[in-house]
Amino acid sequence: MNAVxxxxxxxxxxxxxxxxxxxxxIIHKFGFDVPKEDIDQAKQMYGEFLExxxxxxxxxxxxxxxxxxxxxxxxxxxxxxxxxxxxxxxIRYPDTxxxxxxxxxxxxxKFDLNTKEVVMLLKxxxxxLDISLNETVFAYERSYDEFIKNAQAEINELASPIxxxxxxxxxxxxxxxxxxxxxxxxxxxxxxxxxxxxVECLILDFSGIGNIDTNIARxxxxxxxxxxxxxxxxxxxxxxxxxxxxxxxxxxxxxxxEVYANVKQAIESI
Length: 270
What we know:
- The chain is an alpha/beta fold.
- The protein contains eleven helices and five strands, in the order H-H-H-H-H-H-H-E-E-H-E-H-E-H-E-H.
- It has helices at residues 3-13, 15-29, 36-56, 66-81, 87-90, 93-110, 115-158, 180-196, 214-229, 241-249, 263-269; strands at residues 163-166, 169-176, 201-209, 233-237, 259-260.
- Strands 1-2-3-4-5 form a five-stranded mixed sheet.
- The radius of gyration is 31 Å and the shape is rod-shaped.
- The chain starts with a helix and ends with a helix.
- The mean pLDDT is 80.
């Protein structure tokens, strides 16, 4: 058995013990406290990482075990689910890389590896760390983006309530800022609900809106046109003086619509 094969067997048989030593050295280099739970998890993770390293030494250069990619993705997803920041992952890699490099150099001396074998070992470790970091970050971003998407969908639902006022009459208060996604949500999700609730007159109240630009106005006019085609009477209310000035400044024309100062006036007109 050559020196590299002996090293592989050593890594496999002692991965847990070696992982404990590596994590302790890494923690010592950090300039911040790490919770015990994170330390225990790191020791388990690096024990698995050393197993992946042992399996990858005999692999074709540039390849990594599929288990390493899956493991890194799970780490990224777990970090995102805990609500942690991506920086909490990135900040640990430089010290981790240095400790691993020193650790591999010591193993090279211990197992009497030649220069070429030590370089191969260092390249393999750094390549695996790079792949692991990339997969972790990509998985974190995908999970985080999915979380933001779901949260935004919930916010859109909560910020677009259809409030019945009387038989056939309802008000849709527009709250907060309206962007393109919110306008599309109104068109795709809220309009069908209005039709299904047999609303004959809908009051679209702008008193909770901070801003309107031409793109948003275009979507609102589309909502108006769709509802009118469904035979629903539309009344606009709550266009404050500051909002009215902004609307005029943007060149948005509301003069052809039925507009009242507030919901109370709209109800009285009905």
